[in-house]
């Protein structure tokens, strides 16, 4: 059975319109919010993974445990640079604590 060209074109248009929508479909990183990247093999937005702070899209985020996290008071850390001003990284707990 042959699929009419109009039906095929309509199906492709609908599929293309779904990209970047709230369902998480994507064609590239720009279709996802600033905390996610596009997995091209699945077409889904996924949390951004990182190896260094420079891999994070937002400079206000730090790479901790392979994930880009907000630099927040009391947040997770590897070193003092991952903490907000006035805090330092407790290397025993890997949590930002007020500086002494």
Structure report:
The protein is built from 1 helix and 6 strands. The N and C termini lie far apart (76 Å). It has one helix at 5-18; strands at 36-39, 44-47, 61-64, 67-70, 87-90, 95-98. Helices cover 14% and strands 24% of the residues. The longest helix has 14 residues, at 5-18. The strands form 3 sheets. Strands 1-2 form a two-stranded antiparallel ribbon. Strands 3-4 form a two-stranded antiparallel ribbon. It is elongated and about 45 Å long. It is of the alpha+beta class and 100 residues long. A hairpin with a 4-residue loop joins β5 (87-90) and β6 (95-98).
Could you write a compact summary of the structure shown?
This protein is of the alpha+beta class and 100 residues long. Helix content is 14%, strand content 24%.
Q: What are the main properties of this structure?
A:
24% strand; two-stranded antiparallel sheet; alpha+beta; elongated
Instruction: Indicate the proportion of strand residues.
Output: 15-25%
Please tally the helical runs, counting DSSP H or I stretches of 4 or more residues. Answer: 1
Residue windows where pLDDT falls under 50 for at least 5 positions: 3-22
How much helix is in the residues?
A: 10-25%
Mean pLDDT: 76
> What gap, in angstroms, lies between the N and C termini?
76 Å
Overall shape: elongated
Described by its quaternary structure, the protein is: single chain
N to C succession of SSEs: HEEEEEE
Quantity of strands, as a count: 6
Largest sheet: 2 strands, antiparallel
Query: How large is the radius of gyration?
Result: 20 Å
* Order of strands in the sheet with most strands: 1-2
> What structural category arises from helix and sheet content?
alpha+beta
